[in-house]
Amino acid sequence: MYFCCRRYEQMRGVETRAKHERREKQQKANLSLSVKEVWKECTGISASGLDRMEWTSNFAHHIKALECDDSWNLEFDDKIDPKNPDPGWRTFMWCSSAWFKCSGCKRSWPSNNVMVAFHMRLMDKEGTVKVKRFRQSCKICSNAPMETPDISPENIDILMEKLVQHIEAKCYGKVVNFGSGRSAPLKVRNKHEPEHCEGCKAGVCRRGGI
């Protein structure tokens, strides 16, 4: 009887710790999103505007290391087709990790299968990079819209480092050691669901299409 009680208490303790860890992860995700909401209230800059600033400033930092005389600009463009770039454009894709938040039920979820596509072109000493972040939809809400991933500054930095390496190789013809660096993964409990992944539907997700 004593053994059974002790075993029950141990199992309850493990279950309680697991619930606490899940609650902490959710709170961190909500905090990250709420910080952007507070920033909007204080500065008038939207979360998407703040996100754009993070990407462009990080890109400017990494492109400066090339020490080239060309000017480079980065912009978001959800219309680009990663498989069919326009003439003169080079492509690069990377799988990152990010959080998503449903605009309907406000549920948040992590994913380690977030595809990001880049199209790049250098013409007349002016370089342009177009970025498409593949979205995901909430699996609970019916007819849920596709949501834009919230990629951490750490993973944006990794993305920009890899992007500039590909610019060196594809736009300047340099020999580059790409290394084996990967995006910082998140702890994900559920399996990737292709029916809710824009990358899978486009046939570019590393987990395959549907």
Structural write-up:
The chain has helices at residues 2-43, 47-64, 153-171, 198-202; strands at 71-76, 90-101, 108-123, 126-133, 136-137, 146-147. The protein is of the alpha+beta class and 210 residues long. The strands form two sheets. It has a four-stranded mixed sheet with strand order 1-4-3-2, covered by helices on one side. It has a two-stranded antiparallel ribbon with strand order 5-6. β2 and β3 form a beta hairpin. 24% of the residues are buried.
Relevant terms:
210 residues, alpha+beta, 2 domains, four-stranded mixed β-sheet, two-stranded antiparallel ribbon, 40% helix
Task: Quickly describe the structure.
With 210 residues, the protein is α+β, with helices and mostly antiparallel strands. It contains four helices and six strands; from the N terminus they run ααββββββαα.
C-alpha termini separation: 52 Å
Count of the separate structural domains = 2
**Unreliable stretches covering 5 or more consecutive residues:** none
- Integer average pLDDT: 83
Strand and helix layout:
Layout lengths: L1 H42 L3 H18 L6 E6 L13 E12 L6 E16 L2 E8 L2 E2 L8 E2 L5 H19 L26 H5 L8
Parallel strand pairs: 1-4
Antiparallel strand pairs: 2-3, 3-4, 5-6
Helix pairs in contact: 2-3
GO biological process, one term: protein targeting to membrane
Protein name: 3CxxC-type domain-containing protein
Subcellular location: Membrane
